[in-house]
Specification:
A hairpin with a 5-residue loop joins β3 and β4. It is flat and about 80 Å long. By secondary structure, it is mainly alpha-helical. The protein has a domain of 59 residues.
């Protein structure tokens, strides 16, 4: 059964298999929280449908946000005030506080919400995704490639996992591809981590053209048809964080 020869695994699967070998020992539940926490921090992305910024906006604007195990604080505002009970005692709101820059989510960007991401990562690590489970149901299903997971483990100082080895790629005969689309994908992910997700298909096309040109030995720019085919073949829209509805 081991090592597992699959190209990608979900957070849930990784946490289950990883718990069998990691030392010091940790449960699959603890490791799942660690992976989701790393997602909030932008250390992992995988094939997530939403970016941390997009999910934060969804949570904040939801009519159910007051039912969560966290409380949003806008700007420099104070936290919830104690509630006086009939017997004269005070009931304190001890829910973790998530500070957001303003009530206007359209003005938010990655940099302005960094404190909120760190707070959500800490809540996840300490209390689990149960604190906001209504909005976290898809997070355990985020899939990582073996390469992305191993890179993150190395950066975090974890020993290289033994439970997972990706399937060997069969060599293909013939002419090598003209453009380095895997390199373009990596540059898109780096761009998103620093500037936030690409907002429109036009912006995605331009970024792909620029990065493909940058990586091409002869500094050649692919045509529109080539770029659009590469977006589908290499999942470049997901790497760029582009909302499928746009």
């Amino acid at each position: 059964m081991f090592p597992i020869a699959r190209a990608a695994l979900s957070f849930l699967d990784i946490s289950e298999y990883w718990s069998r070998e990691i030392y010091p020992p940790a449960s699959s539940h603890e490791l799942l929280n660690t992976l989701v926490s790393a997602w909030w921090l932008g250390e992992l992305r995988g094939d997530s449908k939403h970016s941390p910024l997009q999910l934060l906006k969804i949570m904040y604007t939801s009519m159910f946000r007051d039912d969560l195990g966290i409380v949003f604080i806008v700007g420099d505002g104070a936290g919830p005030l104690p509630v006086e009970l009939p017997d004269g005692s005070l009931k304190l709101n001890l829910r973790p506080q998530i500070h957001v820059p303003s009530s206007d989510t359209e003005s938010w960007d990655e940099a302005a919400c960094r404190d909120a991401f760190h707070a959500l990562a800490e809540v996840t690590e300490r209390q689990s995704i149960e604190s906001y489970r209504e909005f976290a149901v898809m997070l355990p299903s985020i899939r990582l490639t073996c390469e992305e997971f191993n890179t993150w483990c190395r950066e975090r100082g974890y020993p290289k996992p033994k439970f997972w080895r990706p399937p060997l790629k069969k060599s293909k005969r013939g002419r090598p591809p003209e453009y380095n689309w895997n390199g373009v994908k990596a540059l898109l992910e780096t761009y998103v981590s620093g500037h936030g997700p690409v907002q429109t298909i036009g912006e995605l096309l331009q970024k792909c053209a620029d990065f493909a040109f940058e990586l091409h030995p002869g500094k050649s720019t692919p045509d529109d048809k080539t770029i659009r085919e590469a977006i589908k073949t290499h999942a470049l829209a997901a790497a760029a964080g582009l909302d499928p509805g746009k």
